């Protein structure tokens, strides 16, 4: 078995497990990038998504100005192709993390790349919370924050988990591009060590690992949605 | 009784500005609701009923007018551009807790259990945690849902959902309950259960209820006062009896018809041979009466005193506010002079006589 593997996947073996170019390192880099940019980008997206819902004309704090600001910022960042954002944002990245290359540096463009997507998803998810429920909450004297946390986020919980799963999967996709600024990860493994070196076996295994990661996220997401939904 | 009305809406206007046009949803409406009233506001959808009642707890801020609830001014502005007084922030939320509201589509929190839904209304209550628990249990007992405490709304029937909504609306011991088409999504049997519950709340706890609906049937069951709304205006108001016995406006009559079906009966009976081939000495008439008139054997009297026979083809007697209100469709036959005298006697006894067919000579 081992012999067969070594024979069929020579380049996979060559990459090694640990070390700068090893598989474990690539997996950790991908997980690291996905996790932290999901936290930062997710929070930012959540804030913008909630902002879009409550400042909308039928929201609980309608404001044309604020809605316009949220909407335009989200639209602007969504319009930027991620690979360009990676490069264009470099000076800002340098200010924030002190360097413009590497795995940590990639968190800035990844967060900025994923937040507008997530903001729109949150907006859609929360817009499904019926205005009637919000009105009923107001009629029993609920405050602004009661409604944001107790109604919108609570009622939209399972929908939020669903869109978070979708976002997380597309974020894993974005981390594959972060190799362009030296962030490493499985995407980089597939392109730099696989494709560029005609090491098809490396590309194949890297792809397989990404697929497994996506699958795990999807399955966990689906289970959570099912458990949280009482509609 | 010179007590001030618990709800005083005066000269309320609500206008919405859309891109190019202005929509007047409520047009100069004045409504006073006394403590303990069950006040029905009837109208077709789009008449402005929902907008009007939302003015009471300021879920809808009026454009102008004055809103006084429990002697406290919630809103006051003489016109759109005038300086307005409006209660806001914590004070408003505090007052809203004293005005319960239930809705056509129940509007329960789907991701919370029955208990949690009711408890949601108690978030800012000064009660201690164990007192809140007891309060929720007591409310669920009141609406007969104690056994459903841990279920989610999706597991309940429409009537049960509405009862949860009622428990939630009553959580902060309100003096006023606004019912926005609360029975419109329910079947007739469930509707009656909910109406009976509202009636009980009104009678036992003195809860003032403002009930908006397009179903006259619901109003007939429990209201003591009625206003009819059309195109943002109140076109007719009065006690339930006045409205039912002597409707003035066409729309009011239409609504009453939906509750009594008398027009439909006239329509059907008119096609029957008896009425179709009405003889010269016969007249097809509708007799309407209110109250004690029904205690006297009038119909029998017609024969005794005038030799006029009455063939009763259809009858509808309602007990509204403990007063009988009746409508009879009859064929009266007798000699012209006798018929004339008979009709005169009926009118003397406050029976409204409406000749539908025949009797040209009368």
UniProtKB/TrEMBL annotation, chain A:
Family of the protein in this entry: Belongs to the binding-protein-dependent transport system permease family.
Gene3D superfamilies xref list: MetI-like
Membrane topology note: Multi-pass membrane protein
UniProt protein name: Methionine ABC transporter permease
Lineage: Bacteria, Bacillati, Bacillota, Bacilli, Lactobacillales
Span of domain ABC transmembrane type-1: 27-221
Record GO cellular component, one term: plasma membrane
Source organism: Leuconostoc pseudomesenteroides
InterPro entries, per database record: AA_ABC_Transporter_Permease (IPR051322), MetI-like (IPR000515), MetI-like_sf (IPR035906)
UniProt keyword annotations, A-Z: Cell membrane, Membrane, Transmembrane, Transmembrane helix, Transport
Annotated transmembrane regions: 33-54, 66-89, 95-118, 163-184, 204-225
Record localization: Cell membrane
Chief location bin: membrane
UniProtKB/TrEMBL annotation, chain B:
UniProt keywords, alphabetically: Amino-acid transport, ATP-binding, Cell membrane, Membrane, Nucleotide-binding, Translocase, Transport
Domain ABC transporter positions: 7-256
Coiled-coil regions, chain positions: none
GO molecular function: ATP binding; ATP hydrolysis activity
Pfam family for this entry, one: ABC_tran
Domain of life: Bacteria
Name the record gives this protein: Methionine ABC transporter ATP-binding protein
Organism of derivation: Leuconostoc pseudomesenteroides
Gene3D superfamilies, A to Z: 3.30.70.260, P-loop containing nucleotide triphosphate hydrolases
InterPro entries membership: AAA+_ATPase, ABC_transporter-like_ATP-bd, ABC_transporter-like_CS, ACT-like_dom_sf, MetN_ABC, MetN_ABC_transporter-like, NIL_domain, P-loop_NTPase
PROSITE patterns: ABC_TRANSPORTER_1 (PS00211), ABC_TRANSPORTER_2 (PS50893)
One GO BP annotation of this record: amino acid transport
């Amino acid at each position: 078995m081992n012999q067969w593997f070594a024979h069929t996947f020579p380049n996979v073996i060559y990459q090694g497990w640990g070390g700068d170019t090893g598989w474990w390192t690539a997996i950790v880099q991908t997980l690291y990038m996905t996790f932290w940019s999901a936290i930062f980008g997710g929070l930012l997206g959540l804030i913008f998504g909630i902002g879009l819902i409550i400042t909308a004309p039928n929201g609980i704090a309608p404001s044309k100005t604020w809605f316009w600001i949220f909407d335009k910022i989200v639209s602007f960042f969504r319009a930027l192709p991620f690979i360009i954002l990676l490069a264009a944002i470099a000076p800002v990245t340098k200010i924030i993390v002190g360097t413009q290359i590497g795995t940590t540096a990639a968190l800035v463009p990844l967060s900025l790349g994923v937040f507008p997507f997530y903001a729109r998803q949150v907006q859609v998810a929360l817009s499904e919370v019926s205005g009637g429920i919000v009105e009923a909450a107001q009629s029993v004297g609920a405050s602004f924050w009661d409604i944001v946390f107790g109604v919108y986020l609570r009622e939209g919980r399972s929908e939020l988990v669903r869109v978070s799963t979708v976002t997380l999967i597309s974020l894993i996709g974005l981390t594959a591009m972060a190799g362009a600024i030296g962030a490493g990860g499985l995407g980089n493994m597939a392109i730099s060590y696989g494709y560029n070196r005609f090491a098809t076996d490396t590309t194949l295994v890297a792809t397989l690992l990404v697929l497994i990661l996506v699958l795990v996220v999807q399955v966990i997401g689906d289970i959570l949605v099912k458990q949280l939904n009482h509609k | 009784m010179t007590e001030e009305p618990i709800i005083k809406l005066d000269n309320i206007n609500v206008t919405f500005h859309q891109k190019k046009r202005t929509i007047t949803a409520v047009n100069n409406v004045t409504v006073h609701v006394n403590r303990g009233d069950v006040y029905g506001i009837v109208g077709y959808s789009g008449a402005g009923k929902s907008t009007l009642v939302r003015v009471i707890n300021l879920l809808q801020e009026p454009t102008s007018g004055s809103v006084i609830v429990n002697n406290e001014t919630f809103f006051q502005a003489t016109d759109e551009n005038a300086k307005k007084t409006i209660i806001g922030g914590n004070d408003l939320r505090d007052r809203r807790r004293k005005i319960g509201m239930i809705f056509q589509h129940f509007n329960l929190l789907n991701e919370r259990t029955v208990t949690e839904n009711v408890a949601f209304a108690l978030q800012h209550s000064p009660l201690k945690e164990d007192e809140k628990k007891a309060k929720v249990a007591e409310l669920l007992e009141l609406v007969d849902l104690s056994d459903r405490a841990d279920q989610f709304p999706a597991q309940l029937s429409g009537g049960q959902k509405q009862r949860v909504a009622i428990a939630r609306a009553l959580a902060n011991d309100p003096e006023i309950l606004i019912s926005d088409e609360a029975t419109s999504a329910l079947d007739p049997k469930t509707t009656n259960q909910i109406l009976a519950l509202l009636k009980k709340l009104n009678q036992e706890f003195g809860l003032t209820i403002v009930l908006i609906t397009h179903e006259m049937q619901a109003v007939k069951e429990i209201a003591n006062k009625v206003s009819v709304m059309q195109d943002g205006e109140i076109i007719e108001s009065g006690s339930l009896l006045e409205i039912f016995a002597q409707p003035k406006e066409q729309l009011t009559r239409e609504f009453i018809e939906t509750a009594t079906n008398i027009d439909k009966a006239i329509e059907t009976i008119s096609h029957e041979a008896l009425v179709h081939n009405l003889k010269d000495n016969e007249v097809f008439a509708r007799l309407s009466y209110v109250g004690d008139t029904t205690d006297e054997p009038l119909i029998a009297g017609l024969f005794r005193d005038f030799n006029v026979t009455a063939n009763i083809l259809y009858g509808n007697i309602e007990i509204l506010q403990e007063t009988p209100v009746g409508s009879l469709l009859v064929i009266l036959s007798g000699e012209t002079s006798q018929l004339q005298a008979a009709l005169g006697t009926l009118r003397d006894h406050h029976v409204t006589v409406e000749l539908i067919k025949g009797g040209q000579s009368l």
